[in-house]
Amino acid sequence: MPGILVADDLPVIRTGIIHILTQYQVPLQPFIEAADGADAVQMARRHKPDIILMDIKMPKLDGLQAISMIRAEQPDVKVVMLTAYNEFSYLQKALKLSVRDYLLKPIRPAKLIELLEEIQKEIHEERRNLRTIEMVKDSLQKTLPVIEANLVETLIRGTNAEGVTTEESLAFLGKRLSRPAVFVGKLDDYDNIAQEKSAAQLQKIYLSLVEIVRHVLPEPQHALVGYSKPGRVIVILSCEQHLATVEQLRALADKIRQAINAEMSLTVTIGIGNVYSGWEAIPLSYAEANLARRYQSRKTGNAIFHVAEVLAASIDRTDDTSYRIQHEQDLIHSIQNNDQERAMRLANEIVDYLTQRFKTNPEGFKNSCAELVMLIAWAVIGTGIEQHNVLKISHHQVMNLNSQQNMQEVRTWTMNSLAEFLAVLQVRTHKKNAVSQAVEYLQANYRRANISLQEVADAVYLSQSYLAWQFKATLGVSYVKYLTSLRIEEAKRLLRNTDLSIVAIAEKVGYPNVTNFYRHFQRLQGTTPAAYRQKEA
Question: Which end of the chain is more exposed for a tag (fewer CB within 10 A), N or C?
């Protein structure tokens, strides 16, 4: 409770001070007495006064010791020391304890009342400022999720708020992002859920989804969580160390899926996009994650799917519910095979489908067309066109989307965007086949143990998932099998033509672990390296 604590070992001084406080009707009551330093500490702990009038010299604990202990528990309490002229050295120590002021004994009533009035004004001002700060904090806490959701929308669309940089927005939110990848999660059977719930109930479901996701994230300060379409949660993650691989991303997505199921008794399908080096590529990862999520939701739902699995998977052409994903996959392949006539036809058919699906929801139609254009941009990058150039075109197109007034204008905008991307493909007529380039790169570097699919994809300006798909489609074997065959063929040559030890040969062909070398050699050749050497000798 508020009040004034008077601590002095002389009863006559305590009585005199309290008489002055009562006579001048000082409003900060009650008036509490303490006979020594130890008593003052106990009284301060019990009553939590606004002001303490503390004598310096007292038994048990002196005033300085008592104030030091009280300050540790109540750092904001106002302290006035009571001192005599010959105690000035003590007063210097008191000032180091952040005492508000001091009064010389004998105490003059006018001086005491004047000082207390000043302190009372300070207390009122500090409390008013504190209330203002708390109000601002409360308002900010309510606003931050909205700001975060808006930033997510900006990043996945590839737009930038005028005058505000991504760095500034992230700093305001206390976030840091590097090497981003996107998760898109959608509640299974959301359309039926929406029909049974009010707008307020749906908003509550969304807020619960976001809170569950934030709780599961290992480092929330390295992630953004937002909301794009009804029933969907979007997560943009920093993918460093513990989130560096597809397996680690899948494990985190599965934790999110399980948490939502456990806490809300709802199932969710989550699509995962690739990891990119910069923020400007977030729309690409979003397009991939959305494609993966949509593909899986057409199958069983309540699952995790990475975009690489979409390119490697086959579509059930007899399933009418897979119409959009079938056409999207065909569109990607048409673009990457530079079959422009077929790409235009497929894009038209997808837009026709979206027109019917969103005929009463123009905003939903616009968002879906924006996602289609970003998917097209992703497919174009997969052909080997430099990512920066494609993103520059897509950014320009997306910025123009806001000026489209109706569904027909949005349709025209979508087809014009596709035409612009296809024109870029036309220019690239003399570029070497990307798989041939990748093969050449592997033949020159397969001896390095740490060579990765990502490194090869970067070398030929393809996405990792698309290169994996192209390897399988063009050569009939996966990237891993092709790399293994290169290494084993070179190992066979060395076994036949040199006296190098098997351990040395293993290292020369990229297997620092000789056990792995033995395992791969025997699987492909049906015999051990030693037996092979003896047979070929």
Answer: C
